Amino acid sequence: MRNQCVLVFLLASFLLLFGTTEAMASNILVRQGSRGPAVRQVQTLLIEQGWLTGAADGICGNQTVAAIKSFQKANGLDDDGVCGNGTYSVLSGGQEYLPSSDESDGTVMYVNATAYSADDPGNSAYTALGTHVRHGIIAVDPSIIPLGTHVYIPGYGEAVAEDVGGAIRGHRIDVAFDSRAEALAFGRQDIEIYIRD
Description:
Pfam families: 3D, PG_binding_1. Keywords: Signal. The protein has 197 residues and is of the alpha/beta class. It has two domains: 34-91, Muramoyl-pentapeptide Carboxypeptidase, domain 1 (Orthogonal Bundle), CATH 1.10.101; 107-195, Beta Barrel (Barwin-like endoglucanases). Helix content is 31%, strand content 20%.
């Protein structure tokens, strides 16, 4: 009986440790159009190893994609130009991806982001929660990001989920700006955001 208790204790400890390790692990996805600290980390590693020239600007454009493809091909990986966990592990020498902590406390989520303003044709000046559409507001799918959630968006700043939209489903957000020109300049991007609460 005592041996069974010890075995149960060891098994429970192992499961707890394994579950904690898995919870701490972070995923990375850098592809054409991605922006943010994850892109900057990948670019820095590519620059250090001679695959990319220039500065790590945090924007995954054509040069970054080409550098990822070259690295993947040279290392026997699927050369799709997308840096996921497998490519990152080889690129970093077996290190696990850890999100940077410079302004980015919270849980990382990858989303497809578009932009809007109250000036856009057909848009209301008010959010689903009755507040004014303005910089610092995002429209979300409440089943993915509940209304009222605070997020941090690199290059944009702090935002609160206060709006919804008919086309905003799944891991997609709409980022509010004060003018239509700003919204158009933002365009459509694959980005990482940080869920604060």
